[in-house]
Amino acid sequence: MNTECNAKQLYFQGLGRRRVEADFDGGTITSDAGALLLREVELANGFIESFSGCFTDFRDQRYVEHSVKDLVSQRAMALCLGYEDIIDHDDLRRDPLFAAICGKLDPLGENRRREEDKGKGLAGKSTLNRLETFGVGTQENQHYKKISCDEKEVERFFVDSFLETQKEAPAEIILDIDATDDPLHGHQQGRFFHGYYDCYCYLPLYIFSSDHLLAAKLNTANLDPGNECLPEVKRVVEQIRESRPKVKIILRGDSGFCREDLMKWCEENRVFYLFGMARNSRLVLRIAAELKEAEREYRKTNLAQRLFKDFTYRTLNSWSRRRRVIGKAEYLGKGENPRFVVSNLGREEIAARELYEEMYCGRGDMENRIKEQQLYLFADRTSSATMRANQLRLYFSSLAYVIMNELRKIALQGTELARAQCHTIRLKLLKIGARVKVSFRRIHVSISSGYPYQNMFSQIRRNLKKAYPQLC
């Protein structure tokens, strides 16, 4: 007699007299119940709707089941939840809660046209792949490639989102600019070897203001970011001044952006700058007395010493004028550590020590924001063959960052996650197990009783109600 068995049943080591076994028979269960909070943030701000407006859909709408907004929402929300690969969506599209978060009115997929699609509320990997792979610069007459993306509108979207989320117009905006390496492991278009990073890579350029992302531009590694950044800086500054004509703008970057063209443009366009400078023998000579004094104090106290000197300086050939330079004469246990910055901020506005220690050193937080995008929102998943497709992938990652950052800034105030990075927020707040029941009148989500952050979750919901009363 044949024994009836379940191939999907799993057995584990027993616990005392009890057997431990598992099966995939739990019914409609999601691991992403916390994404309900992301949906509240999106409904209040309309990030995905605005981003979707940057696309033109040339498909025959009689046969379209997933709008551009549906596809964009599906891709961005999946990145927020940690699903970086397109192939993940072949399983995700069966999750009714994920479909509801993406705005699908038929989360169970009961009304799909094809019988094989029933029970799948969202698009599969092939549909999403067409959006990503052919999304930028697509022509209307291309076969199967019927969704195009206006890159200039996408660029405007990120600056507009920054401006719209500010409750009050600030008197001052500091723009942090930096580039980072995005290693490549295939033969993508625009692939070049970079000697400093010792790999084939792209060099995406980012512009942030505090923790707000304003620009993410994919560049090839054969181009120097310092020489190529001026068009992006111009575009961002001009767009900010369209709605904030009197705001004081300060551009901040490391020594890679200390270039004559950029500094000259800032000086001619009422933009202040603060850049690091690569040290040389002439600069070190200008602070030689301060370095000696710092060394003497170190010998007396055995504590690190730091002195500052404020002076004007001009390079032998590359600068068109003399500029204000602040030299840091520092002596540590390992010896001298001279550093320099250049700025057009006046001495009457800010003293040398404050300019260096409080303003310039503050730019280091931008590196954490770039790290968040690359490691936790998968901005480095640039494995498509073309630059335009990889740029669109970077845009999707940037959209996911905008949503996650707004959740952090508004909803997590007063909680232990107020300063947490994206992966911590995802682990503690979004990845929650729950049973989902979908009926004609409601979608009921039964969150696990063992969830350890129930009180904080309730507080976050109260914060959302307070910040977005229109949702209540």
Which descriptors apply to this entry?
2 domains; nine-stranded mixed sheet; 472 residues; Transposase Inhibitor Protein From Tn5, Chain A, domain 1; 19 strands; alpha+beta
What does this structure look like?
With 472 residues, the protein is an alpha+beta fold. It folds into 2 domains: 209 residues, no CATH class; 225 residues, Alpha-Beta Complex (Transposase Inhibitor Protein From Tn5, Chain A, domain 1), CATH 3.90.350.10. Helix content is 38%, strand content 20%. The protein is built from 17 helices and 19 strands. Strands 6, 10, 11, 12, 13, 14, 15, 16 and 17 form a 9-stranded mixed β-sheet that branches. The protein has a 3-stranded antiparallel β-sheet with strand order 3-18-19. β15 and β16 form a beta hairpin. α1 packs across α15 and α7 crosses α9. The chain is globular. The N and C termini lie far apart (61 Å).
Give the secondary structure arrangement, pairings included:
Layout: E1 10-15, E2 18-22, E3 29-30, H1 35-45, H2 47-52, E4 55-57, H3 68-80, H4 89-92, H5 96-101, H6 125-133, E5 147-149, H7 151-164, E6 172-179, E7 182-183, E8 192-194, E9 199-202, E10 205-209, E11 212-217, H8 225-228, H9 230-243, E12 248-253, H10 260-268, E13 271-277, H11 281-286, H12 288-301, E14 305-313, E15 323-332, E16 335-336, E17 339-343, H13 352-360, H14 365-376, H15 387-411, H16 422-430, E18 434-438, E19 443-447, H17 454-467
Helix pairs in contact: 1-15, 3-15, 7-9
Number of helices: 17
CATH class label of the largest domain? Alpha Beta
The number of E-state strands comes to 19
**Regions with little confidence, pLDDT below 50 for 5+ residues:** none
